[in-house]
Automatic annotation (TrEMBL):
The lineage of its organism: Bacteria, Candidatus Nomuraibacteriota. GO terms for molecular function: carbohydrate derivative binding; glutamine-fructose-6-phosphate transaminase (isomerizing) activity. Residues 2-232 form the Glutamine amidotransferase type-2 domain. Homodimer. Its EC number is 2.6.1.16. Its main location: cytoplasm. The keyword rRNA-binding does not apply. It is found in: Cytoplasm. GO terms for biological process: amino sugar biosynthetic process; carbohydrate metabolic process; fructose 6-phosphate metabolic process; protein N-linked glycosylation; UDP-N-acetylglucosamine metabolic process. The gene is glmS. Catalyzes the first step in hexosamine metabolism, converting fructose-6P into glucosamine-6P using glutamine as a nitrogen source. It comes from Candidatus Nomurabacteria bacterium RIFCSPLOWO2_12_FULL_41_10. This is Glutamine--fructose-6-phosphate aminotransferase [isomerizing].
Amino acid sequence: MCGIVGYIGKREAYAVLIKGLERLEYRGYDSAGIALLDKGVFSVYKKKGKVAELKNFIEQQGKKFPPLLYKERGQEVRSGIAHTRWATHGAPSDKNAHPQLSNSGEIAIVHNGIIENYLSIKEMLMKKGYKFKSDTDTEVLANLIEDIKKNAKVSIDEAVRLALLEVVGAYAILVLSKDEPDTIVVAKIGSPAVIGVGDNEFFVASDATPIIEYTDKVIYLEDREMAMIKGGALVIKTIDNETRNPYIQKTKMKIEELEKGGFPHFMLKEIFEQPRSIGDSMRGRINANEGTVKLGGIEKDKEKLLDAKRIIILACGTSFHAGLEAKYFFEELTKVPTVVEYASEFRYRNPVIYENDLVIAISQSGETADTLAAVKLAKEKGATIFGICNVVGSSISRIAHAGLYTHAGPEIGVASTKAFTAQIAVLMLMCLFIASEKKLLNKKKMIAILTELENIPKKVEQAFLAEAAIKKVAKKFKNTENFIYLGRGYGFPLALEGALKLKEISYIHAEGYASGEMKHGPIALVDDNMPVLFIANKGSSYEKIISNMMEVKARNGTIIAIITKGDTRAKKIADYSIEIPETSDIMLAFTASIPLQLLAYHIASLRGCGIDKPRNLAKSVTVE
Ligand code: G6P
């Protein structure tokens, strides 16, 4: 949550920062701000609302427009820090937006995270006469740094380091000080920070998206590390003052991946990217002719995978639903008991972990605070951790013993789509790998499953053909206040995910339920006004689903059914039907997800909702 970006070098800092904020806006969008340090003068601009509002506000500054100021003052080294916020401490407002300044205005700071002991520090500072203008924990940190800098008479980087020794919590911070205009300080625990290394210039951001336009050389800071970028040089050390060698990597992210490419929203672009993203997540990992799966990322730890007596999947949100879907095929094909847990629940219990347990953490961003904390807990208790992440170099991917990336490419829309199906693809490969190594699937069966898997991108293309029918359903139900989504077996996690998509972006209340549970509660909601969406493909649960559809029909409910192409029986019962191509049970998620995502998208679009940035949500939830 919250995006931070910083720049120091000879470019016009304002342009780099505002563009960086636009790229990071998926992380939070209730307020934004920029501080530019220019010849010892801070220009600070902050606005409640989205980055576009901040941009308008700054660009209407007349003679005070930052690029004009630079020109006028003849500034050589240009630096600035910026922030896009998802509020935790203090409501979204201009005053609570970052950057936060210290009392004297000497120090500016942006912060992603939470300082847990900010109240005791604030009390201590108030006794010393410090005044606070905002409700944020960040302003407390700005003043703590100022207090230490003044009293200990140390440089800004040392003041930051000493201040951080007093802080409890999670953070990625960027700090500028008026009297050291050639320096920018960055530090992190828990929240991500990436440094871009250019030619005599440096970029810092919450992820690599604001950086790749300028350089492909990046450094991912580790927890408890800080970097001082000073006079064109970079020094990394820990907050305990141990020097570290910078490890510079090359990022493969491409700029086109960060643009909408002609689509009105990132979400729609990402839905239509799925044939590619599923294909990329499998590429080089399967050989259908030979019936083999090769998974480089887990090769060295494969014994742990094969010895596992139990698999524990930890995740949040949509990634949790991917885990739930995987439970069905893991248990069916590997016979290993598989439990799926919300990371946020797992970590606050006292979970029992055995030596032969394998934990699989699923996270698109690789930064979700609860998943990260749950993984740390499981690791401490001796479990082997495999990560499935989309963001290369992310915290979970680094903390895991082994893992696999989903090669979905950057997912910008807050509602997850292509990451979900890519996660299912990678989980399926892991499952097939175990089943084949344990000789639970013979060659013939492996060849058959892998051949079907190889064809999935084409089947997903075919699922797009139902878009016209989906648009009609969207039009009909755009003003509905409630929805029930029902599925059984492999369809159940998809019903949960479909309902989540609708809730997230259209703000319609939607419940996902196991269709067998319908008679234990949800059926009481069914009346003439209640649309019930069934995942009614012709799989192993088909007959039972048909019975459930009849039960809804008998109570005058309106049925929308996702059916297998050509299935006239389900079509007759349903009021509206949406066809998907036939697949085996285990592959249902790839095809059935498409109409679920498109239906949510088109309803939200007809309701005029802010699809890529739904209210109150953020893509990367780095608070617990
Ligand atoms: C947020 C996002 C969801 C996502 C969840 C887990 O709530 O809005 O789309 O599924 O976090 O994120 P992760 O990055 O761990 O998959």
